[in-house]
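A student in our group prepared the protein record below, which I am reviewing. I have pasted the whole thing underneath without changing anything:
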Amino acid sequence: MLPKQEFITIYNNKELIKKLLIELVLEPRVRTLKWSEITKQTPNIKISYPGQHLASLVLGMEGTKTGARGNDIVDGSEVKSCSRVDQLDTCNDCGEKVLRIESNCPNCGSINIKRMDDSKWLFTIRSENDLKVLTQDVDRVVLTLADYPEFDKGNFQDLRFQIFEIWTKSVRNQNFVQLMTNYYNKIYLGHKNKNPNKTPAPKNFWPYSYQFYMCNPIKVLNCIVKNANSNPQISIDYYVSPETDRSILPSELMPISILNKDELSIISEKTGITLKEIKQKLPFISEELRLFLRLRDTDKISETKPYQ
């Protein structure tokens, strides 16, 4: 889990990260928000390529100038981006689509709006070679995420940018390899056997899900943007330098609230904390305790819409 030092060529990273976010993401978004009020078009600016720029600055490594057809980072790292900012919402009363900047439904005037927060990272694995590249050839998977730190409070003024790393050859991250392998062997091939003419959906990898935490992702960036809709103010409150050995870093703590009854029982047995008290006394599950948990059923073949 030690980055390849010879590929680190970008320095002054924290200042460059702020400059990048302002120029490529935040300033264009502020202008788009103003136009969105007039056109009623979504202001959502896709983060895929800005996410790759951001990953390069955080890792201190250049890209390979290949777009989507080669390595994303010069050391061979794979970058996946997910944005939950400015998703299109839905009116719970009439079903009309509602922009994130709208407080009322434009069709019926209702304030009963379902705010969406379900974007995820997508992994397309359509062959044995795709699986091999992702789980064996690639040493590091870099996950960029843009979301709202206070989404549950309805605060859509402040944004958060995070980057997590998963090292496919590390024992700590082996659940990621198992998830991707299970997806290809059970889900993808299962659907192809049922209907060879349809292309199954890619593997969905959800931020803050049970699967996400079970993969022991390691955070290397946490950046908060206050007043992002009008006058963005950036604060980098957590940053890991490119040369740092990731093996000494802790993985993200898993909220105990996402465990099911059986999983809670396992943790209760291992810690000696009663089920009645466990959520109050143990709000988060450490990486060490997660060793006693297992991945949930990811082998089941379920019906999904084909991926185009």
Q: What stands out?
A: The two ends are 35 Å apart (CA to CA).
